[in-house]
Amino acid sequence: MKQIITLFLAALAGQAQPLPITWYDGAGLDRGVADHTIQTLSRIFQQSGLDVQVRSGDPHEQEANLVLYTERRDVCRARRDIALRLRASAPDGMRGAVLAYSHPFAPGGVNVTVFLDRVEAAALQQRRPMSLLLAHVIAHEIGHVLLRSTEHSKGGLMSSHWNEHEFSLMPIGALLFSREQSRQIRRSLTGEGCRDAKNR
Ligand SMILES: [Zn+2]
Fold it and tell me: In the beta sheet, which residues pair with residue 54?
């Protein structure tokens, strides 16, 4: 029976849909922390049926420095992959609670930005490994992009504030997208409902 379950899981893993992420590190994140972060991130999205594919990008590239502030909520023009920018510190004037932000409707440029100084401070405060918190912060922001929403849920990975409950779920791999969120994320990636999805 155990073998059957293992084979079944392997089959599921084989069907996982790719989630492409271009990783623009403009902050010189420690290699070990980056590796652990990507491992944790992969595990989170694997539970949603997605296989994270990280490509390292040059942070001097044009795309890495382009932020399109779009008011237009055009889901079908929004990019369906992730361009992630890691910044060493938050700009002056950025609210203290903000660890990262996303642009769910951006048709190009960076759609997820993370401030490593903020994440590191929060990890220290919560006494959690930096990579653990960073992976969940990135997953949350990717969630906004692929759920095409700036809204938050009442609790869980997509809540606006994580309390002790959410922090306690992180190390046991249980702070995840809900089944419905996972389904919506997979739909966004395939461009379901968009006429020219195949051309993008
Ligand atoms: Zn959020």
Answer: 21
Q: Could you tell me the distance, in angstroms and rounded to a whole number, from the CA of residue 181 to the centre of ligand 1?
A: 14
Q: Which helix (H) or strand (E) holds 20?
A: strand 17-25
Query: In this structure, what CATH number is given to the domain that contains residue 45?
Result: 3.40.390.10
Ligand 1 centroid to 161 CA: how many Å? 8
Is 3 among the domain residues? no
Count CA within 13 A, CB hemisphere, residue 101: 14
Q: How far is the CA of 99 from the centre of ligand 1 (A)?
A: 9
- pLDDT average, residue stretch 31-58: 97
What the block records as the tokens of 24 is 């623009």
Residue-wise pLDDT for 138-191, tens only, equals 999 999 999 999 999 999 999 999 999 999 999 999 999 999 999 999 999 999
With respect to residue 198, please indicate whether it lies within any of the assigned structural domains.
Answer: no
pLDDT above 50 (res 102): yes
Q: What is the pTM of this model?
A: 0.90
Q: Give distance in angstroms: CA of 6 to centre of ligand 1.
A: 35
65 to 45, 120, 130, 160, 177: CA distances (angstroms): 26, 23, 25, 26, 29
- Number of domains within the chain: 1
pLDDT of residue 132: 98
| d(CA 101, ligand 1 centre) in Å | 7
